[in-house]
Structures are given as structure tokens and as C-alpha cells.
């Protein structure tokens, strides 16, 4: 794509505005026409990344500050150079931004919000924090910290003590020689403490002269009383410098050791900086991500020029089907034709650069390998070319370059010369391009081109609407309708004599008059249909909004209703449970009393009371479908559950379906289907229960599990592993969004019996597997 096309379509201004949203200078340098992609897979991937970023930004801000180019620092560290404090802080800021972005992505994983493409970059970021922690512990914006080493701390304490001694000595000297000083402030010269002594009193203050003022009236003297202390401080400063260099060298060594990770972080963060810059810029004009492909139609929904104020710009629907390669827009000047074709051209370039387009959701664009434009006054004074010659020179160059994968945008084709010859030339150029399946969007005010598209199946007319009532353009695009001249209507509005107008109409020809009348009627019908469509869309939108509101109320009502039912059931169940427990306690007491000799206790009444309570208990498990169970033969002496009473008993007599059962001290007769035979329990000697190693697999598969269920299974599994003395196990969590993998590894970090864990090797399943070594 040549510079003239970029300038003609104003894409350079788009790039300037996009750069304002990038953080790093390195990213800003990458914002140029080299972002333009022509392979369908590449374009779709880039647009998908920006779409993910838009999704994230709609939920929460994503801060990218701190991103800067650290590649030169890392490479210098690798060859043995010692990095400065500021360079180490730059690396720290990048590591900090990396950790914060990982945290942001994890928030979206926890919410199960799918990030189809961007999650790939987050997974490429190393999670190791040891280098970041070491830098934080060692340096800050003021320099190397005191506690970076015990040696440095000791040296600085000594310097502090010596400087305190100097200040004490200097204060004494200043009090003694106050009248001989030109100022009461201690200053520094050549890293030595000096006093400003009046030149005529310098002989009275013994010391070393380090400097003289410009006027010569002040001499800066280091008193002899502090020379020895200053010398000691100088030696300590040298020791401090050496220790600082040693500490910085050690930190630089750590940077060199982490070269691969740091360069990976730099690359990923700069990619994300560019992606989020595009998304944030797109949000500034409410841009969207279009569908795009080589065989797509062009369908821009409510498209507008992105450099015009969004509150004032007129938005247009532009629809060109797959089989159409030519759009001829006719109509008067200053009607919005140029803005419209620029909007189409910019939308295509922006989409193929991965920038949201200025249109609504549902827009589609055709993919092009090259774009050419000839727009505006490109007259070359230097080459002494006229406007017509300049345009024709550019068009000639375009014709030599285009193919069926090109988009050509031509503004006022054939203008600047004799109208008849200009129209003929315009038709010839269009035929040349369209016969070669080049996609062409052209504007013209020549009436001869109105009929051009009617004879071609791959070409469509369009025009810009003009309001005769207000004598002003509406800037609305009318697809399928050629532009009409409004000269007679405008003349009549402006008060021109009617006889003159009628004579002009007669001179223009009856056919031309009828064509204009038909075009006018078609425009009116189209405008009316568009207004009806807008009103229908408005009503549908209101209806949909009302439907969603009603559904919201309905769902809220259902939730509250269910919540109230559950609360009431829970409260009722608790009351009944308490009553059952109380009744059981009474029965137990009565049985004890009977054993001790109590007579004539009507216990069956208490059991009936308990049964009544049980029948009220809201629980589906009480009423069992006994018919579905395997029918077992009952014999005298069998232990059974009496389902209707919730009691255990023993069969003492059988008469058909009537069974007599002994329940404690009570005999009762019940139906056979009210009983369930109890399984006979074999008594075993007490033994310590152990988990057999043979029964515990060395692999746990969590794929397909919900996050919470997976964590519960993992915890239980690790307990079994510990009891079975397994030394190494394999957790399969799959790749997916990475949320389950992070959850598993976080759980393993906190488990006291886990020694180490690592990601699986390619032969073991790669990132979808974590290998755990137990203590």
C-alpha cells in the first residue's frame, strides 16, 4: 500500500490516534502500515485477540502501565555488563505488570468467561517470582537499599556516624567564627564539607581552600579539624561504591540467568500492549469486530467516518453482495460522497490491521491484498501538473498494479477536463477494472455514468440524498438509486422565474426530465421505506427490552418463591426432626422403665405419635417405591425395617401378606409391602482400617469436572495417596482455559504432604498433566 493511498484515506491520522493508547515506545513504533495483513487466518486471529480484549474491557479496566522495552538490558546482562538501578527497576516494573495481568486473566477464568485467543499469551507468561522479589528486596527508586547486604548496612552506619561527628565539629567552628563567614550554611565542594569564609578573613580560619566564589569575596575552606574525618568518609564512600557494584552485579547475574523468561515476558507484554491499545481506541468511537473473508459480501451496518465527531456524523448502511465488484456513487458535490468512500476504505484497512471498525455488530468485509485510492486535489506544483494530469498519472499507476484481489477507490473520476471526454474516460477506466474483477468504488457527478451499472450484473448504483426542502444534503447513502440533478427544484426554491425554469426543462429534453422524475419518486419511496424500517427497529428494540424486563421480573419472582418455599420447608423439617427426637427419647425411656418393671405402658400410642410426625416430614426418601426392589422371602426370625414407622423389628409370625413384627416391647401386625428385610451383618474382630496401596491408582483424572468438585476429589485423593505411601502420582486436568490447572497447582502448593510438582513432559501429556512427588 503506497503512501499516497494512506494519505488520501487519512489512515495516517488513525495511526496517530491509535498511538495515544499504547504505553511503550516500542509498541508505538510498531503502530504503522506494517500491521496490514492479507492472509485470512492472520486477520481473523488478530481480530479475535482484539475482540477478547474488548470483552475484558467491558467487564473491568485493564491497566498496562509499566510496560517498556527491556530487551537491551537483558542482552547487556547476558554479556556481563552491570545493570544500573534504573534498569533493574524497569525489569521489576515489567515483572510486576506481568503478575498483575496474570491475576486479571485468572479473574476471567474464575468467572468462566471464555477468552478464545488472548489466553494463549497469558499461558506463555512464566509464573516464577523469585527475581521480582530479589529486586524489590535490593533496590528502589532511591538506589540500593541499606539491607541489601549486611556489609552495605555496616558501611552506611559508619558513614552516618562520621557525618554526625563532622556536623558537630562544623557547628562548633561556625559559632566560633560566625563573623568571619559570609553565610551560615555548610556546603560541599569536591565531595568535601566546606565553610563559606569571607576572603579578608581566610587567614583566621585554618584549613584547605577548595573553591572561590565568582566575585572573589568568598573562599570555601575545609577546616583542618574535620580533614581526617572527611578522609575516613571518603574511604567509606569508596567501600560503599564497591559494595553497591557487587550487589548490582549479583542482581545482573540473576537477570542473565532468567534471559529466556524475561525476553518472553517482554514479547508477550508488548503484544498485549498493542492489542489493548487497539481495543481501547476502538471503544473510543464504539467500534466493533467484523466478520471477514475472501468471499464475503461488504455489509457495513451504521458505518461512519471515525475521524468525525461520533455525535454529529451521519451513519450509513452499505451493502454489496458477493457478486458485486463495482459501486458507482453519483450526485452533487458536498453531498458526502467522498466521506462515504473514505469510510469504506478505512473500514477495510482498519479491519485488516486488527483495529475495530466504525460500524455496528453484524458488519462483514471482503478481504483484499492491496488497496489503492485516488482522492482529493493532488496537483503537483513541483512537476507542473494540473489536477487532471495528477489524478490521471496516479490512476495509470494503479491500473498497472491491480488484480482481482485489489480494492480501488476513485473520487470524482474523470473530473477536471471536458465533461463529455471526462465521462467517456471514466466509463473506459471502470470497464477496464471491472472486466478484471477488481473491486471498485467510484464517485462521479457525470450523468452518463448513471446508466453504466444497469448494463452490468456486477455493478450497483448509489447516491447521496439531498433535501430539496432545506436545500441541503442529508449525507445519507441511498443504495441502488443513481443520483439526480436538483437544479430545477433548487432554482424554483430560490425564486428564479418559472418561465425560465420551464424553458430550461424543455431544453434538457423530455427523456432526461422523466428519468429525473422517476429517480425522485424512487428516492422518496426509499426514504419512506427506510423511515418505516427505522421505526420498526425502534419498536422491536422496545419490545425486546420490555420482554427482557418482564423475564427479569418473572425470574426474580420464581427465585423468591422458591427461596421462600425452601426456607419454610427447612424450618418445618427442623421442627419435625426435633419432635421426632423428643418422641424417640420418650420411647427409649419407656422401654427402660418396662425393663425395670413398669406395668401397663401404652407404648403403641407413642409410636403412633412418632409415625404421625414422620408422615409430616417433607422428604421424598420416606416414601420408597418398594415394588422396584428385588422381592425377598421373609421368614420368622428375620430382622426387618418397618418403613411406615421408621423402626427396626423382628418377624414373629406370617399369615399371607399380614406379618406380625416385634418392635422392642411392642407387637404389631403390618402388611408385607411395609417391610424391608435387613441385610445380615457378619461380626468381625476389631481391626485397624487401612487403605491398601493396591486399591489406590497413581493417576487422578479431573477432566470434565467442575472446579469446586475437582478440588474436593483432589483433596480426597491426596489423603488416600498419603495413606497408601505412594511416592509419585499423576493429576490429569487437561488444558482448556487453564483455570483447572492453576487451581490444582495452587492446591498442591498448600498441601503439607506434597514435596514438589511439575508440568508433564510432552510424552506424559504436556501442560494437561501435573506430576506430583509426595513427602
Automatic annotation (TrEMBL):
<keyword id="KW-0175">Coiled coil</keyword>
<dbReference type="GO" id="GO:0004519">
    <property type="term" value="F:endonuclease activity"/>
</dbReference>
<comment type="function">
    <text>Endonuclease that is involved in the suppression of homologous recombination and thus may have a key role in the control of bacterial genetic diversity.</text>
</comment>
<dbReference type="InterPro" id="IPR046893">
    <property type="entry name" value="MSSS"/>
</dbReference>
<keyword id="KW-0238">DNA-binding</keyword>
<dbReference type="GO" id="GO:0019843">
    <property type="term" value="F:rRNA binding"/>
</dbReference>
<comment type="function">
    <text>Acts as a ribosome collision sensor, splitting the ribosome into its 2 subunits. Detects stalled/collided 70S ribosomes which it binds and splits by an ATP-hydrolysis driven conformational change. Acts upstream of the ribosome quality control system (RQC), a ribosome-associated complex that mediates the extraction of incompletely synthesized nascent chains from stalled ribosomes and their subsequent degradation. Probably generates substrates for RQC.</text>
</comment>
<feature type="coiled-coil region">
    <location>
        <begin position="529"/>
        <end position="585"/>
    </location>
</feature>
<feature type="domain" description="Smr">
    <location>
        <begin position="700"/>
        <end position="775"/>
    </location>
</feature>
<dbReference type="GO" id="GO:0140664">
    <property type="term" value="F:ATP-dependent DNA damage sensor activity"/>
</dbReference>
<dbReference type="Pfam" id="PF01713">
    <property type="entry name" value="Smr"/>
</dbReference>
<dbReference type="InterPro" id="IPR007696">
    <property type="entry name" value="DNA_mismatch_repair_MutS_core"/>
</dbReference>
<dbReference type="GO" id="GO:0005524">
    <property type="term" value="F:ATP binding"/>
</dbReference>
<dbReference type="InterPro" id="IPR000432">
    <property type="entry name" value="DNA_mismatch_repair_MutS_C"/>
</dbReference>
<dbReference type="GO" id="GO:0072344">
    <property type="term" value="P:rescue of stalled ribosome"/>
</dbReference>
<keyword id="KW-0378">Hydrolase</keyword>
<keyword id="KW-0067">ATP-binding</keyword>
<dbReference type="GO" id="GO:0016887">
    <property type="term" value="F:ATP hydrolysis activity"/>
</dbReference>
<keyword id="KW-0699">rRNA-binding</keyword>
<keyword id="KW-0540">Nuclease</keyword>
<keyword id="KW-0547">Nucleotide-binding</keyword>
<keyword id="KW-0694">RNA-binding</keyword>
<dbReference type="GO" id="GO:0045910">
    <property type="term" value="P:negative regulation of DNA recombination"/>
</dbReference>
<dbReference type="InterPro" id="IPR002625">
    <property type="entry name" value="Smr_dom"/>
</dbReference>
<dbReference type="InterPro" id="IPR027417">
    <property type="entry name" value="P-loop_NTPase"/>
</dbReference>
<dbReference type="InterPro" id="IPR036063">
    <property type="entry name" value="Smr_dom_sf"/>
</dbReference>
<dbReference type="GO" id="GO:0030983">
    <property type="term" value="F:mismatched DNA binding"/>
</dbReference>
<dbReference type="Pfam" id="PF20297">
    <property type="entry name" value="MSSS"/>
</dbReference>
<protein>
    <recommendedName>
        <fullName>Endonuclease MutS2</fullName>
        <ecNumber>3.1.-.-</ecNumber>
        <ecNumber>3.6.4.-</ecNumber>
    </recommendedName>
</protein>
<comment type="subunit">
    <text>Homodimer. Binds to stalled ribosomes, contacting rRNA.</text>
</comment>
<keyword id="KW-0255">Endonuclease</keyword>
<feature type="binding site">
    <location>
        <begin position="331"/>
        <end position="338"/>
    </location>
    <ligand>
        <name>ATP</name>
    </ligand>
</feature>
<dbReference type="InterPro" id="IPR005747">
    <property type="entry name" value="MutS2"/>
</dbReference>
<dbReference type="Pfam" id="PF00488">
    <property type="entry name" value="MutS_V"/>
</dbReference>
<dbReference type="GO" id="GO:0006298">
    <property type="term" value="P:mismatch repair"/>
</dbReference>
<dbReference type="GO" id="GO:0043023">
    <property type="term" value="F:ribosomal large subunit binding"/>
</dbReference>
<dbReference type="InterPro" id="IPR045076">
    <property type="entry name" value="MutS"/>
</dbReference>
<comment type="similarity">
    <text>Belongs to the DNA mismatch repair MutS family. MutS2 subfamily.</text>
</comment>
<dbReference type="InterPro" id="IPR036187">
    <property type="entry name" value="DNA_mismatch_repair_MutS_sf"/>
</dbReference>
Amino acid at each position: 500500500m503506497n503512501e499516497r493511498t494512506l494519505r488520501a484515506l487519512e489512515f495516517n491520522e488513525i495511526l496517530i490516534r491509535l498511538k495515544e493508547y499504547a504505553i511503550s515506545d516500542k509498541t508505538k513504533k510498531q503502530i504503522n502500515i506494517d500491521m496490514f495483513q492479507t492472509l485470512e487466518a492472520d486477520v481473523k486471529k488478530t481480530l479475535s485477540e482484539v475482540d477478547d480484549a474488548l470483552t475484558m474491557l467491558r467487564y473491568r479496566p485493564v491497566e498496562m502501565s509499566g510496560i517498556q522495552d527491556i530487551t537491551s538490558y537483558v542482552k547487556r546482562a547476558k554479556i556481563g555488563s552491570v545493570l544500573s538501578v534504573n534498569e533493574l527497576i524497569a525489569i521489576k516494573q515489567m515483572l510486576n505488570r506481568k503478575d498483575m495481568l496474570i491475576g486479571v486473566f485468572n479473574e476471567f477464568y474464575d468467572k468462566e468467561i471464555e477468552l478464545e485467543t488472548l489466553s494463549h499469551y497469558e499461558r506463555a507468561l512464566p509464573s516464577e517470582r523469585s527475581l521480582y522479589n530479589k529486586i524489590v528486596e535490593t533496590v528502589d527508586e532511591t538506589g540500593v537499599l541499606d539491607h541489601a547486604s549486611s556489609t552495605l548496612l555496616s558501611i552506611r552506619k559508619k558513614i552516618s556516624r562520621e557525618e554526625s561527628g563532622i556536623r558537630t565539629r562544623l557547628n562548633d567552628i561556625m559559632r566560633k567564627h560566625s563573623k568571619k563567614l559570609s553565610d551560615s550554611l555548610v556546603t560541599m565542594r569536591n565531595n568535601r564539607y566546606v565553610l563559606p569564609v569571607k576572603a579578608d578573613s581566610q587567614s583566621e580560619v585554618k584549613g584547605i581552600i577548595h573553591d572561590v566564589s565568582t566575585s572573589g569575596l568568598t573562599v570555601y575552606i575545609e577546616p583542618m579539624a574535620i580533614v581526617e574525618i572527611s578522609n575516613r568518609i571518603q574511604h567509606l564512600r569508596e567501600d560503599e561504591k564497591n559494595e553497591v557494584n557487587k550487589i548490582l552485579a549479583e542482581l545482573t547475574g540473576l537477570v542473565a540467568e532468567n534471559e529466556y523468561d524475561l525476553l518472553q515476558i517482554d514479547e508477550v507484554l508488548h503484544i498485549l500492549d498493542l492489542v489493548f491499545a487497539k481495543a481501547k481506541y476502538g471503544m473510543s468511537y464504539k467500534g466493533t469486530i467484523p466478520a471477514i473473508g475472501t468471499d464475503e459480501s461488504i455489509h457495513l451496518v451504521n458505518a461512519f467516518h471515525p475521524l468525525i465527531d461520533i455525535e454529529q456524523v451521519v451513519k450509513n448502511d452499505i451493502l454489496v453482495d458477493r457478486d458485486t465488484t463495482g459501486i458507482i456513487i453519483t450526485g452533487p458535490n458536498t453531498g458526502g460522497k467522498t466521506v462515504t468512500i473514505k469510510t469504506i476504505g478505512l473500514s477495510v484497512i482498519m479491519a485488516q490491521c486488527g483495529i475495530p471498525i466504525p460500524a455496528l455488530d453484524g458488519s462483514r468485509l471482503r478481504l483484499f491484498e492491496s488497496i489503492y485510492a485516488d482522492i482529493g486535489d493532488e496537483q503537483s506544483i513541483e512537476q507542473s501538473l494540473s489536477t487532471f494530469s495528477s489524478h490521471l498519472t496516479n490512476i495509470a499507476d494503479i491500473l498497472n498494479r491491480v488484480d482481482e484481489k485489489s480494492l480501488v477507490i476513485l473520487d470524482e473520476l474523470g473530473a477536471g477536463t471536458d465533461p463529455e471526454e471526462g465521462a467517456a474516460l471514466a466509463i473506459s477506466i471502470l470497464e477496464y477494472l471491472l472486466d478484471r474483477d477488481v473491486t471498485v468504488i467510484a464517485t462521479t457527478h457525470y450523468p452518463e455514468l448513471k446508466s453504466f451499472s444497469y448494463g452490468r450484473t456486477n455493478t450497483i448504483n448509489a447516491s447521496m440524498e439531498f433535501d430539496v426542502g432545506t436545500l441541503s444534503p442529508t449525507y445519507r447513502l441511498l443504495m441502488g438509486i443513481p443520483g439526480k440533478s436538483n437544479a430545477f427544484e433548487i432554482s424554483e426554491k430560490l425564486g428564479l422565474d418559472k418561465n425560465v425554469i420551464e424553458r430550461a426543462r424543455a431544453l434538457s429534453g423530455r427523456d432526461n426530465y422523466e428519468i429525473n422524475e422517476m429517480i425522485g419518486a424512487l428516492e422518496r419511496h426509499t426514504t419512506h421505506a427506510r423511515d418505516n424500517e427505522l421505526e420498526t427497529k425502534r419498536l422491536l428494540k422496545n419490545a425486546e427490552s420490555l420482554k427482557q424486563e418482564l423475564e427479569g421480573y418473572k425470574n426474580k419472582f420464581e427465585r423468591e418463591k422458591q427461596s421462600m418455599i425452601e426456607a419454610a420447608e427447612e424450618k418445618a423439617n427442623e421442627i419435625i426432626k426435633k419432635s421426632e427426637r423428643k418422641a424417640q427419647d420418650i420411647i427409649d425411656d419407656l422401654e427402660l422403665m418396662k425393663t425395670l418393671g413398669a406395668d401397663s405402658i401404652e407404648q403403641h400410642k407413642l409410636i403412633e405419635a412418632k409415625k404421625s410426625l414422620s408422615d409430616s416430614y417433607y422428604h421424598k426418601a420416606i416414601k420408597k417405591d418398594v415394588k422396584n426392589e428385588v422381592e425377598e422371602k421373609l421368614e420368622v426370625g428375620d430382622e426387618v425395617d418397618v418403613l411406615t414407622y421408621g423402626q427396626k423389628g423382628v418377624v414373629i409370625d406370617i399369615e399371607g401378606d399380614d406379618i406380625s413384627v416385634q418392635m422392642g416391647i411392642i407387637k404389631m401386625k403390618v402388611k408385607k409391602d411395609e417391610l424391608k428385610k435387613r441385610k445380615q451383618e457378619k461380626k468381625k474382630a476389631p481391626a485397624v482400617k487401612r487403605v491398601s496401596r493396591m486399591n489406590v491408582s497413581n493417576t487422578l483424572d479431573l477432566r470434565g469436572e467442575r472446579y469446586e468438585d475437582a478440588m474436593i476429589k483432589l483433596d480426597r485423593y491426596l489423603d488416600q495417596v498419603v495413606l497408601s505411601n505412594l511416592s509419585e502420582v499423576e493429576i490429569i486436568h487437561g488444558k482448556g482455559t487453564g483455570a483447572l490447572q492453576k487451581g490444582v497447582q495452587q492446591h498442591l502448593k498448600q498441601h503439607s504432604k506434597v514435596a514438589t510438582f511439575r508440568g508433564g513432559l510432552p510424552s506424559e501429556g504436556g501442560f494437561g498433566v501435573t506430576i506430583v512427588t509426595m513427602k
